Structures are given as C-alpha cells and as structure tokens.
Amino acid sequence: MPSTKIVVHVEDNEDVAEMLAIVFEEFPVNWITAPTGADGLRLARELHPDLLVLDLMLPDMSGRDVFMQMRDDPQLKRIPVWVLSVIWWNANLFPWHESSIVSYTFKPFDIYQFRDRVLDLLGIERQ
Questions:
Q1: DSSP bridge pairs for 71
Q2: Would you state the pLDDT for residue 73?
Q3: Where are the domains of the chain?
Q4: 88 pLDDT higher than 90
Q5: Which of 12, 36, 55, 106 could make an SS bond with 60 (beta carbons 3.0 to 4.6 A apart)?
Q6: CATH class for the region spanning 5-122
C-alpha cells in the first residue's frame, strides 16, 4: 500500500473544505483543513505536508501573505503550493513565478477533475 500523503488545505469555507475532504477519503491522503492563514502556517510547520492547498481570501490574512511567509521561511519554502480560490480578477498580484507554486484552480471548479490532478501530483494512482 502506498504511503499516506499529507495535504493541508487552508480554506475558510466549510462546505468546500468538507467536500474536498470527502472526495479524498478513499485514497491514501490525510486531508487536513486549516480555517485561517495562521492555522495553515502552524500546521505546515508541524506536519511539513506533501502539498498545501491555499485559498487567497482568508479571514485573518490574505493567501498571498500566507505564501510570502512560507517563501521566507526555510522550513516551509519547499512545500508545494496549489492555489484554489475564487479570486481571478486580481490574480496578477500573486507571485505565480515562484517555483513552489505547482498549480492553481479557480472556483467554481470540477471537484473530480481537481481530485484527479492532485492525485497525479502526489503520485497516487486511481483505480
């Protein structure tokens, strides 16, 4: 059996967070939701996840601020980041050129297509 991958999902929308946790249940993925940027940073430091899925609109700080803190932290800067956000109109403010940004998905999105792309990135086969 493949080793379990850890994904920290920084997301304040409980419906989106729960929906994604459910679609990854049947795979070796430990999907952990952080409802704030501060929680996401704390969990990233504690768990050093295989992937951090980042919303850009958070209640305590912007996703851009979360990413910039990760980029400047030697412990966090190599964690791959996948942006999942409704923000598209000012996406040019985000540092897309950074090597740790592995992908982005704008909401609304196809949950199964997203799941399959994340599984591919994590190297997990679908059956």
A1: none
A2: 96
A3: 5-122
A4: no
A5: 36
A6: alpha beta
